[in-house]
Amino acid sequence: MSSSALKNPMESSAAEEFSLADFLFSDPDSTDPLVPPAAFTEWRAAASWATSLYEPSLHGPAVPRTRLDCDGVVRSVINLSSYNYLGLAHHPEVIAAAQAALQTHGLGACGSPMLSGMSDLHRRLEQRLATLLGTESAMLFSSGFGGAIGALAGLLRKGDVAVVDAKAHVSLIDGVRLSGAALRMFAHSNAADLDAVLERGKGKRQLVVLEGIYSMDGDMAPLPALLAVAEQHGVGVLLDEAHSFLAAGEHGRGAAEHCGVEGRIGLRYGTFSKALASVGGFVSGRRETIDYLRFYASAYAFSAALPPAIVAGMLAGLDVIERDPSIRTRLWSNADYFRAGVRGLGIDTGESTTFVVPLIIGSDRRALYDLCREMREKGLFLAPVDYPAVPEDQVRFRASVTAAHTRADLDAALTIIEDTIVRRRKAAR
């Protein structure tokens, strides 16, 4: 949009009418792609009451009780924004393993996996992941986002069709677009619509792309029903286990294990930034598929490998959770407790059945940011999620419950939620 489209961007009331979606396309009056639309810069200043809440600075680890920079004041907060699902971010064994690897392997890998970045630690983690997931092989990516892009862009070609759930993560969508394949969406978790979309693609190479747990809604995909449709059409499936890896299933093998469909998934993708509290990602599947991707997933072949210390920390994290699966039980217990508490306050949590718990506000975007600031001042760190990441009438906070939260943490969070979101609603009646 051009700057003329924004009536008076310096008025906060006008700024509320716009979002990032309004500035996605280039300004028709622009001649330089390095200069953003003037209206965006004006809106950014006018909407600083909202945008200043993004990219918050933690002054400590991503643990349940941490410290957060709130408009220049560092406050102690209950952290319900970090993914640290199994509480490994500051686990002493994980920290010790990373420190030891710094001494033996140095700071960085200093090269791509294809040329010089692979180490014995990387190989151990690959083998460990394949064994855990019951697959023939696995490969590591230095970025979770890059892993999704790399896997899909490496597998798909122009003329292929990717059939993707409508609520799939943007990394999966970007991977399809980068590949040149046709992108076709089907209604979220709707087996009948998946069937119709696959029928349209008959005669072409197709791939179905699903998530185990959806990151904005916290619902688990109905994998048995969706896989049955894909199998009827003879189409393979890539399953994104980013939020479900290690956190779901009796042995931590994700949503596929939870749903009893492990042997029916062609390729498993996951990230290390959630349950393993680290960084990076992986894909796991048949040996020939992984070998192919090592050469054709550019995000793998042309990125520096993960730092060895990070890999060592993740190997220790796997030791911790395999030795003590009760951590996973505690995660789900905490999630059920918190979700029930939020619903008991009359707040919509959508279709969430997991440790990802949305607190849906509705369409009042001003309320979203006012409440976010108020909660931080009272000691609760909840991340706001605005359009276009979610529908315009479902802006929300997204809570990430972890095994490390105590009931005292969760009760204190619920008290603050009642004193902010619930109190504001009552006052508006």
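Second entry:
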Amino acid sequence: MATLNIKNIPDSLYKKLQAQAKREHRSVAQHVTWLLSKALNPPPQLSILELKGLGKEYWRNIDAALHVARERDQWD
């Protein structure tokens, strides 16, 4: 297994990594490895056609385009 050394990490970033690692019961090295793995191997994107039974009833009488527009307006 390879070893990676990282130099000059800002103290504030390292403290955040330490805190996250502690919450997840990992060492900092284990947590950084997990974060890199998650970032570099994202889960495959699903097609909407593959999402069976996930709220079709909820959207039956809703204009999806209008709903999305309203959602976007909330973030402006």
